[in-house]
Amino acid sequence: MSVHKEFKKITTHALQAMKARGERISMLTAYDYSMAKILDAGGVDVLLVGDSASNVMAGHETTLPITLDQMIYHASSVVRAVERALVVVDLPFGHYQGSSRKALAATVRIMKESGAHAVKMEGGEEIRESIERVLSAGVPVMGHLGLTPQSIYKFGTYTVRAKEEMEAKKLVKDAKLLEKIGCFAIVLEKIPAKLGKKVSETLTIPTIGIGGGKHTDGQVLVTHDMLGITKDFHPRFLRRYLNLFDEIKGAVEQYSADVKSRDFPNDKEQY
Ligand code: KIV
Fold it and tell me: 214 CA distance to ligand 1 centroid (A)?
């Protein structure tokens, strides 16, 4: 399969040009150097250092516990690996809700210490001030609407958002606001496909869906889910491209058996 490589390095402007000419945007999560190197070589347009690292890398139940220092550690590992992709970093919970000064301080640390290219924040009108302050410092911001996992205790469940008219109307209003104040793209998580289509057609900035249907301008998945490293997560929107949990487990079982049977190392595998 050939990968479109018109852009040497992906910028926020490149993403907007892709939307303008109808080219879909691919985005995956990355948390470490080795995986980011593979994903970048595979031609993915955007790497998201998601706060899903809290679940995937650290085993927490939610994204809330991950710290700013931990996000910076993950982001700097990813940035060192990347030659082409745009690297976007989630602002962790507690660093932008209610304080735009805190949002800017966290963003400055992320940008200076990791070398990432942009940040992402969850929410609409409620976090407008934080987004505006970060944008005014010259840092590109990606929005995130629909199911926003940092608010899981408010929602109480990870089911599809904005099925009701009132919530759908608020989402459209928030999406327009994020575009107006200067966000370069918006993630739409777990919303009806019809609503994903409406928002994508209304905005000129790209929408990136995860469970947002086939009409969003791009798609994002958690890498460990699409590669089948995680096993017990089966949302409808997830397409698994590999079953690495079982493949890696098989390799480990074989290695262990080889060590115990003294098959490994053999004469050629020693000095
Ligand atoms: O943290 C994350 O991985 C995300 C994606 C699910 C969009 O925000």
Answer: 18
Name the residue with the closest Cα to ligand 1, atom 4: 50
Is residue 168 a contact partner of residue 162, using CB atoms and an 8 Å limit?
Answer: yes
Task: Please identify, in words, the CATH class of the domain defined by 12-240.
Answer: alpha beta
Q: Rounded to the nearest whole angstrom, what is the distance from the C-alpha of residue 118 to the centroid of ligand 1?
A: 14
Kindly calculate the radius of gyration of the chain based on its CA atoms and give it in whole angstroms.
20
Given the residues 6, 126, 167, 189, the one annotated as active site: 189
* pTM higher than the cut 0.90: yes
* Domain range summary for the chain, segments of one domain joined by +: 12-240, 246-271
**Rounded distance between C-alpha atoms, residue 135 and residue 143, angstroms:** 12
CB 237, CB 222: distance < 8 Å: no
Nearby residues of 255 by Cβ (< 8 Å), 6 or more positions away = 264
DSSP 14-60: HHHHHHHTT--EEEEE--SHHHHHHHHHTT-SEEEE-TTHHHHTT--
Q: What is the pLDDT of residues 83-128, one digit of tens each?
A: 999 999 999 999 999 999 999 999 999 999 999 999 999 999 999 9
| Continuous segment of H or E residues that includes residue 130 | helix 128-136
Give the chain's end-to-end CA distance (angstroms, integer): 41
189 is catalytic: yes
Query: What element of type H or E holds 187?
Result: strand 185-189
**Cα angle, residue 90 at apex, residues 5 and 143 outer, rounded to 5°:** 75
Convert the pLDDT of each residue in 148-191 to its tens digit.
Answer: 999 999 999 999 999 999 999 999 999 999 999 999 999 999 99
Return d(Cα 116, Cα 42) in angstroms, integer: 19
